[in-house]
Design brief:
The chain has 290 residues and is mainly alpha-helical. Helix content is 56%, strand content 5%. The protein has 2 domains: 85 residues, no CATH class; 166 residues, hpI Integrase, Chain A. The protein has a 3-stranded antiparallel sheet with strand order 1-2-3, sandwiched between helices. Helix 7 packs across helix 10. The longest helix has 20 residues. The N and C termini lie far apart (79 Å).
């Protein structure tokens, strides 16, 4: 009786008719479930009509259309209503079309393990043992920019000598590219990096002539690999060394444990509500004081 009498003045009759037929085919177990499915299906069908989508069950109840409807409905429904609509539509789809095929799990990149102090000192010793002054300056800069400032990829390749400055109580790197910022260099690496920056002057600190060069780090990494007792050099692990060192200084693990936070999304939400510290404060917080 509920299905036959269902009508929604806020949606076209064609959408209401689609909802009645679809929910009847799904066979709701209770009147409450029937009512929830009717409401959700009618809103979804009304959305489909507004986008020129034919009211075919296989199309309208597909995951892609449900997701499009959910995104397009932000602001039209309260967040609580949206959180109810989407699972109701998914359960209705499963009841009518059968459960969706399992999705292949994608591997999730994990933060690499950092190097310990002895390993970093070993790489710097290898850098000092390079046969030419230019190679010594570039290899030690690679270690310092990675483990001392956390730079990778284009940020690492794009640093010129003039981008490394003594100011705000320490050494900082002015990073350009897609995410321009000023990065404090951890104190233990500051003086060594400044030597490389002075040598480079207006050239790229780790070498090369073009801003978009790709293989410039390969020979430098090879020069610092193969030392006795040292693992292969990896720029990702150099960055992890910087990340872990800064996180330890900030007491990040203690804060997250006390707050019961284990999800980076929640941490990102918190950070979005805060303003970054000044450059001088950042130098102090991130271990850059000389």
């Amino acid at each position: 009786m509920l299905l036959a009498g269902f009508a929604a003045p806020s949606v076209p009759e064609e959408a209401a008719r689609f909802a009645r037929a679809t929910v009847a085919a799904a066979g709701p177990a209770t009147p409450i479930q029937a009512k929830a499915w009717l409401f959700a299906a009618s809103k979804l069908a009304s959305f489909a009509l507004s986008r020129g989508i034919d009211l075919e069950v296989e199309v309208v109840l597909s995951s892609s259309v449900i997701e499009r409807f959910t995104l397009a409905s932000e602001g039209s429904f309260s967040p609580a209503t949206l959180r109810t609509l989407r699972p109701n539509l998914r359960s209705l789809s499963a009841a009518v079309l059968g459960p969706p095929a399992p999705r292949a799990r994608l591997s999730r990149g994990r933060t690499k393990s950092p190097y310990d102090t002895a390993e970093i000192e070993g790489y710097l010793a290898l850098a000092r043992a390079q046969p030419t002054l230019a190679r010594r300056m570039r290899t030690q800069a690679l270690v310092c920019l990675g483990a001392g400032a956390g730079l990778l990829g284009g940020d690492l390749r794009g640093v010129r000598g003039g981008d490394v400055l003594v100011r705000s109580g320490g050494v900082v790197v002015v990073v350009g590219g897609h995410r321009p910022r000023v990065v404090p260099v951890r104190a233990r690496f500051g003086a060594v990096l400044m030597d490389s920056a002075r040598f480079a002057r207006d050239r790229y600190v780790i070498g090369g002539r073009e801003a978009d060069r790709r293989s410039v780090t390969t020979p430098l990494v090879a020069s610092l690999s193969g030392g006795a007792g040292l693992p292969p050099l990896d720029t990702g692990r150099l960055r992890a060394t910087w990340l872990v060192s800064c996180a330890a200084d900030l007491g990040l693990a203690t804060f997250m444990h006390a707050a019961g936070i284990c999800c980076s999304q929640r941490l990102g939400d918190l950070v979005a509500m805060l303003e970054p510290a000044s450059e001088a404060e950042a130098v102090s917080l991130l271990g850059g004081i000389r």
